[in-house]
Amino acid sequence: MSGSPFAGLGKVDTSARARWLAPLSIVIGSLTVLVPFKASFPILPPLGLMMLLAWRLHRPDLLKPWAAVLLGLVDDLVSGQPMGSSMVFWTVSFIAIDVLDTRIVWRDFLQDWLLAAGAIGFCLIGGRLVAAPLGAHVDTVLLIQILIAIALFPVLSRLVARLDGKRRTR
Amino acid sequence: MAPPRNRRPGFSRRAQYGLFISYVLAGGGVLVGAVLLLLSTLHPPAFAAVRGTFSELVTPVASGLDGVRRGVSGIPSGIGSFFGVRSENAALRAEVEANRKLVEEARIAAYDNRRLRATLRLRDRISAPVVTARLVYSTGSSTRRFATLNAGSWQGVSAGQPVRSADGLIGRVVEVSPNTARVLLILDPESIVPVRRVRDGLPAIAAGRGDGLIEIRSAGAAQVLFEPGDAFVTSGTGGIFPPNIAVAQVRNRARDTAEGTPFASPDTLDYAVVQQSYFPEAGAVRAPEAAPR
């Protein structure tokens, strides 16, 4: 570090703790439904999904594609959605992001945010279709929930960058 | 920004196979998830045991958080009541005085009622309370409305039992594990409660809408006018909910289908009371229908 400005060059600039911290923080995100507020409409953003997307877009090499299956299973156990819905929707959006990664090569945070917004919208709307009957009056609140989740995504992205730690030490 | 490090394995055959297999696993996971989803749609209580086990693990955490919230949110009201206690005392004394006459009349009416019922030899079924517990968390990010109660089968709770508070009906138990139970709130889009209007006994159905309101549909009669303020209580039809628990109040004038606000809010209640099903045999038959998927 000290002395030469090129000291850190050539070293791997990724942290080792992300290996266990990423799944842990995603599961903690899923468990935020345990906050002691008994909501009468869906208002809490899907923090587990948002953590997953933030980790995926921040460190593409970190999580294997099948990790989304297991993390989705944990989310299904507490979220109240039918069993298997997060497993399907999370993994499908994970693979879709992998595919899009090979198409959009040079990009900045705006594109990442757009990808995350698409995935959040896909998972929440898909979850609503399988969970609640079509006649339920949940669409307006669902839209608000999606907008809140998209607006909060940069915050989680910063949080993930902070958790990951070792990037860009100056 | 530079392109992200992609999953390009290079020329290593082993790395290429590894990458391929990880995608095969992910695809298989999607298939398994789809099968689970199909199973839980066809047979809702299929995964109750798995969910119950997980709920046993996480509910103590939620109970702790709930206790902290109650402690913290009690502080402002504690300070307020300390200073407001004198004026409140005077107001309450005046109210007691005003209510005395009303209570006397009600006592006379209740006595008359009891005497007349005894004359008619009506037999009343009472549904005794099973346990008093707290709702500790709910499915805040889902479109379904379930809450978790921190009492379960070891405390005598079983699926199908109604859950109420002092203010009104909260929901009914759909899944139990030893120390926790999952409650389907009356706000859930798949919850249906048979009710009647307090004013004239008009039968109706109170169905959850999913956005915190309740839809009240008239059962049977057409062209029914609902007025704002019409109160609805459970009718006892169907055998799960005991009669005369307050459910909802109509918000605005409508015909046949009206929006109602529930009397009991699951967030503000102190304790939830689990009661016996009104007709336990009916509860056993009907409870699994609306269990969570």
**What fold name stands as the CATH topology of chain B?**
Thrombin, subunit H
Helical content class of chain B: 25-40%
Number of domains of chain A: 1
In whole angstroms, how far apart are the ends of chain B?
A: 43 Å
Radius of gyration of chain B: 25 Å
The residue ranges of chain B in which pLDDT falls below 50 over 5 or more consecutive positions are none
The CATH architecture of chain B can be given as Beta Barrel
| Cα separation of the termini of chain A | 8 Å
Seen as an oligomer or otherwise, the chain set is heterodimer
Anisotropy-based shape of chain A: elongated
Q: What is the H/E order of chain B? A: HHEEEEEEEEEEEEEEEH
Please indicate the percent range of residues of chain B in DSSP E strands (runs of 2 or more): 15-25%
Q: Number of folding domains of chain B?
A: 1
Task: Please state the average pLDDT score of chain A.
Answer: 87
Number of helices of chain B: 3
Provide structural commentary:
The complex is a heterodimer of chains A (170) and B (293). Chain A has helices at residues 18-30, 47-58, 67-79, 85-103, 109-131, 139-164. Chain A is built from six helices and no strands. Chain A has one domain. Chain A starts with 17 loop residues before the first helix and ends in a 6-residue tail after the last helix. Chain A is mostly helical and 170 residues long. The longest helix of chain A is centred in the C-terminal third of the chain and has 26 residues, at 139-164. With 293 residues, chain B is an alpha+beta fold. Chain B has one domain: Thrombin, subunit H. Chain B has helices at residues 13-42, 48-120, 280-286; strands at 129-133, 135-138, 146-149, 162-164, 169-176, 181-185, 192-197, 203-208, 214-218, 225-226, 231-234, 246-250, 254-255, 257-262, 272-275. In chain B, the strands form three sheets. Chain B has a seven-stranded antiparallel sheet with strand order 1-15-4-5-6-3-2. The model of chain B has no long low-confidence stretch (mean pLDDT 85). Classes of the chains: A mainly alpha (170), B alpha+beta (293). At the A-B interface, helix 3, helix 4, helix 5 and helix 6 of A face helix 1, helix 2 and strand 2 of B.
